[in-house]
Write a structure and sequence with these properties.
The complex is a heterotrimer. By secondary structure, chain A is an alpha+beta fold. Chain A contains 9 helices and 15 strands. Chain A folds into 2 domains: 148 residues, 2-Layer Sandwich (60s Ribosomal Protein L30, Chain: A); 158 residues, PurM-like C-terminal domain (Phosphoribosyl-aminoimidazole Synthetase, Chain A, domain 2, Alpha-Beta Complex), CATH 3.90.650. In chain A, 28% of the residues lie in helices and 23% in strands. In chain A, strand 6, helix 4 and strand 7 form a beta-alpha-beta unit. The relative contact order of chain A is 0.15. Classes of the chains: A alpha+beta, B alpha+beta, C alpha/beta.
């Protein structure tokens, strides 16, 4: 009996190799990329089956039928690697957090990659390894994925889209339309860390400051908060647009206003200084490991105590309250003593000169 | 265009540059518009250039003025 | 932050507020123009208006260089980027100013123009070095604070023989603008503003000193107090102005003595004089055509003048008829008096430049202060 000789299998050169167009074309090159980069780091029973889709069990929580929560996020962050994380860990945390903000326990992720021709395999491996680690630490599996390659110049290195699914028990209702006058507004920690960490890396704005992105998975913190049985109305993570955008969204959704105390809002001195230099308002800068909670006023102190016991929320604080306001303004009393609106920016905050 | 900040000079560099610090944030800026700047001086920074030196004596005078206000105020906090 | 936080002390603010309230004479109104856009922003950001007595009115003046930049100048910059394929470098503030044909620099970028935001002229020079085959134009706007850096950049470009670098110069002068405000014809809607004094700019004054304001006190009998940038500085300056008005005095006083002297920064002034000369006249948004109020590059530096290099012809473009920026910049109307404020004109869809820059009176009021408007 003669055996067909197998061709010599050349492994990918993960140190010096680059993505090329064959890696996205569905042929053997793509299979090799998936095996040697993606499956190597992300591998689990679902991915190992190699089917078009992952068959997941019906949502169940503590033996009872639960509801399904799904969310999705795309990640286009530049630079890809920054102090405190990279596009890989960010892609995991961002989507997990969206699921967690509904009160759900995240279980599964999918990941779609759009790679630019010429992207270094070393960087890709690093990103995927980072994703895998973030997913492992969060107790979540990446159950399906996709890879496409676009021509050089048509993509910024890599774009990642993740979708997440989690389980939510019956009876738990959180949402942006549920805030009411008298509720407390709480943040889990310092504002502006992620956005400033990113900007400190960008070409045009160079300064070396020890600012690290706060990118983190928040579902453990959320579970601890739910366990207190505090009257939670809404959880939301203040990502792009920062605290200002998120609170303004909630105010409009709920048809209320808010009154904050500037001095109560935690901002690290070095982040405040960086924002001064860049002409930015820390309240408008993105966070990736923080959440805002709106809860019944009477439960606020108890909730903050429980949050502070968690490593991701040591600086949790009540920063204001929900009030009746037909204009839906989010206002704040400045540390100086006057009052102003917390603006909802039209677009990206551009560094001010003036 | 007035956004300008007092920052502390930490190091002097070649070609009239300096590294300045604002609460732990460091930046390289140009000193080309000033003469005689030393490490430890505070300068007013605007669009990458130091525009003037901050006079610590005058700063203290202004702050002292404010402090007097505080002391003189009946029942001030 | 040293020399910053001490000047933002809330407890001191309350004490100063009390002093101002007591200094204000009963039955008398006080109108002070804060000239500097940075002050406009500080007043809004800290909610200073809440700490001042109702008899005291702060009028926002034309000290916001983005706000006074006429549409025609932005059109020149857009044309350079879209039609001449230059790399146009600009400070962030100008990106959203609405110009002709529904364009702005930001919108031109999405149409393919290579427009890059820079934090400093130093960045623009580097871009020119990095792209020797491309023309790089720096869109130079600003009052005297921002002018010396432009002068230095041009001199640096000359030293390095950076042949692909040029500057579109729209630098304007503070004393000329103040004079125009003071000379405005009397009476009528949108006409003269009853002004009792000026809060003088902080950082412009570090460059030009306090001497250039002396004509305001001497010729027009109005007090000027140069104020530092922080909110306590502004309040202290207001107190000093109230006292001058009460005493019937008109002098130039310097609250920002820690950074401003009578002579200013002579080195910076010298560099400006080496590179720039006065334009005979220049159109300002809101103030019309003002003589001896703006700068252009001297003949010696003609090689770096984008207007000459690209043979640009300035075309005056009138404001949208509904836009009240002109009157607002002169202090004759308030943002909330404008018909389209907050409705057709918002920071997201600005009709006029006062709504674009965060220092503009309209943007500041919209973003920070409109909770005070009663409907």
């Amino acid at each position: 009996m003669s055996e067909t000789k197998k061709g010599y299998a050349r492994p990918l050169d993960l140190k010096h190799g680059r993505v090329d167009l064959t890696h996205g074309s569905g042929g053997r090159a793509m299979v090799q990329l998936i095996a040697e980069v993606f499956a190597r780091h992300l591998g689990n029973d679902y991915l190992a089956q190699g089917n078009d889709g992952a068959v997941l069990p019906a949502p169940v929580l503590a033996g009872k039928p639960a509801r399904l929560v799904m969310s999705t996020d795309s990640h286009v962050v530049s630079p890809l690697f920054f102090p405190g994380g990279d596009i890989g860990s960010l892609a995991v945390h961002g989507t997990l957090n969206d699921v967690a903000m509904m009160g759900a326990t995240p279980l599964y992720l999918t990941a779609g990659f759009i790679l630019e021709e010429g992207f270094a395999l070393a960087d890709l491996s690093r990103i995927v390894a980072s994703m895998a680690q973030a997913a492992r630490e969060a107790g979540v599996s990446v159950v399906a994925g996709d890879t496409k390659v676009v021509e050089r110049g048509k993509g910024d290195g890599v774009f990642i889209t993740t979708a997440g699914a989690g389980v939510l028990p019956e009876g738990l209702e959180l949402g942006g339309a549920r805030a009411r006058p008298g509720d407390a507004v709480i943040v889990s920690g310092s504002m502006g860390d992620h956005g400033v960490a990113i900007m400190s890396q960008r070409e045009n704005l160079c300064f070396d400051a020890p600012i690290v992105s706060d990118s983190a998975a928040l579902h453990g913190l959320v579970a601890a908060m739910l366990a207190t049985r505090a009257g939670l109305r809404c959880l939301r993570d203040p990502t792009r647009g920062g605290l200002a955008a998120t609170l303004n969204e909630i105010a409009v959704q709920s048809g209320v206003g808010m009154m904050l105390q500037e001095q109560a809002i935690p901002v690290k001195p070095v982040v405040a200084a960086a924002c001064e230099l860049l002409g930015l308002d820390p309240l408008c800068v993105a966070n990736e490991g923080k959440l805002i909670a709106i809860c019944a006023g009477a439960d606020a102190a108890r909730l903050v105590s429980a949050m502070r016991a968690h490593p991701l929320a040591r600086d949790a604080a009540v920063i204001g309250e929900v009030i009746a306001d037909s204009r839906h303004f989010v206002q704040l009393t400045t540390a100086f003593g006057g009052r102003r609106i917390v603006e909802w920016l039209a677009g990206d905050q551009l560094p001010r000169i003036c | 265009m007035c956004l300008a900040l007092p920052v502390k000079v930490m190091e002097l560099g070649a070609n009239a540059t300096a590294i300045v610090d604002l609460d732990g944030v460091r930046k390289e800026i140009s000193l080309a518009l000033l003469d005689e700047v030393s490490v430890g001086d505070y300068v007013i920074l605007h669009v990458g250039y130091a525009l003037s030196k901050l006079d610590p004596e005058e700063a203290e005078k202004t702050l002292a003025l404010f402090a007097e206000l505080r002391a003189a105020e009946p029942g001030a906090p | 932050m040293r020399y910053i936080d001490e000047f933002r002390d809330g407890a001191l603010a309350r004490i100063l507020a009390g002093k101002i309230a007591r200094a204000v004479e009963p039955g008398r109104g006080y109108s002070f123009m804060e000239f500097c856009g940075g002050h406009t922003h500080a007043i809004s950001r800290y909610g200073l208006a809440d700490l001042l007595p109702p008899a005291l009115r702060l009028i926002h003046g034309p000290g916001c260089p983005v706000c006074v930049l006429p549409i025609g100048r932005v059109d020149l910059a857009i044309a350079l980027a879209l039609k001449q394929n230059v790399i146009l470098c600009t400070y962030g503030d100008t990106l959203r100013v609405p110009a002709s044909e529904g364009l702005s620099l930001m919108k031109a970028r999405s149409r393919g123009a290579d427009i890059r935001m820079v934090y400093s002229t130093l960045d623009a020079l580097q871009i020119a070095r990095d792209h020797p085959q491309r023309e790089v134009v720096f869109f130079a706007i600003g009052f005297e604070t921002t002018t010396p850096p432009t002068a230095l950049a041009i001199q640096q470009a000359e030293r390095e023989q950076l042949a692909n670098f040029s500057v579109l110069c729209c630098h304007v002068l503070t004393p000329a603008a103040m004079r125009t405000i003071l000379d405005a014809p009397a009476a009528g809607e949108g006409g003269a503003v009853a002004l009792d004094g000026f809060i003088g700019p902080a950082h412009v004054s570090t460059v030009i000193g306090t001497r250039p304001y002396e004509f305001v006190a001497a010729d027009y009998r109005k007090p000027v107090v140069i104020a530092g940038f922080e909110p306590l500085d502004v309040m202290q300056a207001i107190l000093m102005l109230v006292r001058q008005v009460n005493d019937g005095r008109a002098a130039v006083e310097n609250e920002f003595s820690r950074a401003v002297s009578r002579e200013g920064n002579l080195k910076a002034q010298q560099r400006m004089a080496e590179v720039f000369e006065l334009r005979r006249e220049f159109e300002w948004r809101g103030l019309g055509v003002v003589p001896d109020s703006a700068l252009k590059l001297r003949e010696a530096y003609a090689a770096f003048d984008a207007e000459r290099r690209f043979e640009l012809a300035y075309r005056s473009v009138p404001d949208n008829p509904a836009c009240e920026c002109a009157a607002i910049l002169r202090g004759a109307r308030r943002p909330q008096d404008c018909r389209i404020f907050g409705t057709a004109c918002t920071p997201e869809f600005p009709v006029g430049s006062c709504m674009v820059s965060s220092e503009g009176a309209c943007a500041a009021h919209y973003s920070y202060g409109r909770h005070r408007d009663v409907h």
